[in-house]
Request: fold
Amino acid sequence: MSPISRGFRRRRQEAPAGRVPPGQYVTGDFPVLSAGPTPHTALSNWTFSIDGGREPKSWTWEEFRALPTETLTTDIHCVTRWSKLDTTWEGVSLDVLLGAVEYDAGYVLAFSDGGYTTNLPVADLLGGQAWVAFGYGGGPLGAEHGGPARLLVPHLYFWKSAKWVRGLRLRATDEPGFWENYGYHMYGDPWREQRYAGD
Ligand SMILES: Nc1nc2c(c(=O)[nH]1)N[C@H]1C(S)=C(S)[C@@H](COP(=O)(O)O)O[C@H]1N2
Ligand SMILES: [Mo]
Reply:
C-alpha cells in the first residue's frame, strides 16, 4: 500500500474474493448512520406490533424477550459503500413474529420510533433471513445502532434494517419508505447494486 493511502489502512480491510458485493469496501469500524436524533423509549413503553393482518398483534418488551432467540453472525452492507464482516447479533426471527399473525399480504412497511420507515417484501423476512435484533457483539444493542431493538435484514442494503423498530404494517402493495421516497431502490439487493431507483 502506498504511503498516501495510510489514512485508510487502519479502517479498510482485505476481504476474500467474492465475499463483498460490488462497489463496497470492508471496514472494521461500525459507522453510525441516522437520519435524525436517537430516540429513547423506555422499555416499559416499548411494544412491537404487527398491523394489517387479520387481527393486530403486539408484544410488550417482556413478551418479546420471552420469545425464542437466535444468535447469528453475518456480513452487513451499507449503500454508502461500507461493508462489515462477521457481525454477531442476537434477536428474534421474523419467522417467529410473523408466524403469530394471520395475513394475506405481500409487503410490509417497517416503522420506527422517530418516524423512519422502510418497505420490504414479506418473502424477504421469512426463511431465516430477518430478525428483530436486541443484542450485538455479545452485549445489548447500543442506542446509536438501534437499541433497544432494530430490524436486521442482512441480505439487503443496511438502510432496510430499521433501527428503533416498533413494528410492521402488512400491506398488499409495495409502498416506499423514508429513503425509498428520496430515490433509493425499492428492493436494495447489494449483489445487484440496487442503490437507487432504476439500478
Ligand atoms: N430508524 C432508522 N433506522 C435506520 C436509519 C435511520 O436513519 N433511522 N438509517 C439506515 C441506514 S441508511 C443504515 S446504513 C443503517 C445504519 O445502521 P448503523 O447506524 O447501526 O450503522 O441503519 C438504517 N436504519
Ligand atoms: Mo445506509
